[in-house]
Amino acid sequence: MLKPSDFDYELPPELIAQEPLPQRDASRLLVVYRDREDFEHRIFREIVAYLVPGDLLVVNETKVLPVRLHGVKETGGRVEVLLLRAVGQDLWEALVRPGRRVPPGTRLRFGGGWLTGEVVARTETGGRFIRFYYACSFEEVLRRVGEVPLPPYIKQKLSAPERYQTVYAREAGSAAAPTAGFHFTPELLATLRAMGVGVVPVVLHIGLDTFRPVREENIAAHRMHREEYFVPEATATAVNQAKAEGRRVIAVGTTVVRCLETVAGEGGKVRAGAGMTDLFIYPGYRFKVVDALITNFHLPRSTLLMLVAAFAGREKILQAYREAVRLRYRFYSFGDAMLIL
Fold it and tell me: Which of 133, 175, 190, 314 is deepest in the core (most CB within 10 A)?
């Protein structure tokens, strides 16, 4: 039985990156081989040395919405709302603080009236369902009145909010970013394409539960949050062709892994389409699609760390994390990267 404590490690707080580096591709890159004991240390832009013509990079084109809202009730009381996911036309599941003072029927106003809402019901987990009213597009309204909800371990305000997006973010819908993609620049992607490396998209919208630790003593009892995904027909075709020809499929981030493995049949063939996934990948899982992984360094006891451990081996990953701590790598969302081959 695997326990959350089997995925713990010591991290000095000063190694938690509080802001991104000035240049995206200047972060460090720890290269891990699943069949070798040694590690290699590079700068991220040097990833070109490990990719070859015919490799297929799969990226997550989700875009983070500014879903933290500060509003007022009709009584004048202040309320903070954190949107979790859309559950219908203009209806969202949300966390509300202070929740006990926001019962169903409460009317809320945000940004001086650009956005209004009404609490229509409580959720099973203590949140709220809120129906919103606005004049222009919802994404435009959120840009005016919302804030990007940075992870709880980032304590300072981000001076350049666009740095909490990938350069290829297209489809709005996430409450958190697919951070493995932060290291790519348009120039680096152009270099890879010129080398003959394919780059294709999927979308998986990330919820804030991605930061939630596993609390069950037996991790197999943990239930993942459901997240919305979309795999384009062209991406499914490209992945299936790469697998048929023996070329590598390289996932940029754990969200891409979950998306591809969700839509793969037993034979590894990927199907296009949209849906919801609650796939929990932990050691013992048999991968059907992904051959290599680009990822950041993840929180102890998190489902993200468990996925990476499933891909490379728990002892290998914990050893790699100890090496990264020893060499003062930067950790978490704005930190350094790992390439697992």
Answer: 175
Distance of CA 133 to the CA centre of its chain: 29
H or E stretch covering 238: helix 233-244
Q: How far apart are CA 108 and CA 94, in angstroms?
A: 13
DSSP string, 61-130: -EEE---EEEEEETTS-EEEEEEEEEEETTEEEEEEETGGG--TT-EEEEGGGTEEEEEEEE-TTS-EEE
Chain centroid offset of residue 111 CA = 28
Continuous H helices in 263-313: 303-312
Phi, psi dihedral angles at 91 (to 5 degrees):
-115, 125
d(CA 323, CA 140): 44
CA–CA separation, 329 and 44 (whole Å): 12
- Calculate ∠ Cα 51-56-57, nearest 5°: 85
**Rounded distance between C-alpha atoms, residue 203 and residue 193, angstroms:** 20
Concatenate the DSSP letters of all residues of 132-176 into one string. EE-SS-HHHHHHHHEE----TT--S--S-GGGGS-TT--EEEESS
Which of 266, 204, 273 has the alpha carbon at shortest distance from 235?
273
- Coil vs helix vs strand at 209: helix
Cα–Cα distances in angstroms (integers) from residue 77 to residues 98, 103, 240, 266, in the given order: 10, 13, 55, 54
Is-contact 251 296, C-beta < 8 A? Answer: no
For residues 144 and 140, what is the distance between their CA atoms, to the nearest angstrom?
7
